[in-house]
Amino acid sequence: MKEYDLKVLLSASSKLVGIRQVEKSISKDELRCVVVSFDADGHIRERLIGLCKSHGIEFIDGPSMKETGSLCGIEVGASAVGILK
């Protein structure tokens, strides 16, 4: 797994925020990696990890939902962020 500066990755990259958008984009092979907050619900984390593995997309453990949302420039927490290719 590559080392990323999450602050730069989440603030500067083209991205999708939210579980549903990330799941759809994984299936369409539009993402280079997925960041999932460490405090996201367990079943959400497991589902996203499984999707990433089955589609060959890198999975990154992210900061808290609150911090992830803040790094993405939104005022609410974010469970998952997909970084577009």
Give a description of the structure.
- This protein has 85 residues and is an alpha+beta fold.
- The chain has a single domain (6-84), classed as Ribosomal protein L30/S12 (60s Ribosomal Protein L30, Chain: A, 2-Layer Sandwich).
- Helix content is 44%, strand content 24%.
- The protein has 4 helices and 4 strands, in the order αβαβαβαβ.
- It has a 4-stranded mixed sheet with strand order 1-4-2-3, with helices on both faces.
- Helix 2 packs parallel to helix 3 (42-55).
- The longest helix is centred in the middle third of the chain and has 14 residues, at 42-55.
- 28% of the residues are buried.
- The model has no long low-confidence stretch (mean pLDDT 91).
Descriptive tags:
single chain, 85 residues, alpha+beta, 60s Ribosomal Protein L30, Chain: A, 4-stranded mixed sheet, 44% helix
Structure summarized in a few sentences:
This protein is of the alpha+beta class. The chain contains four helices and four strands.
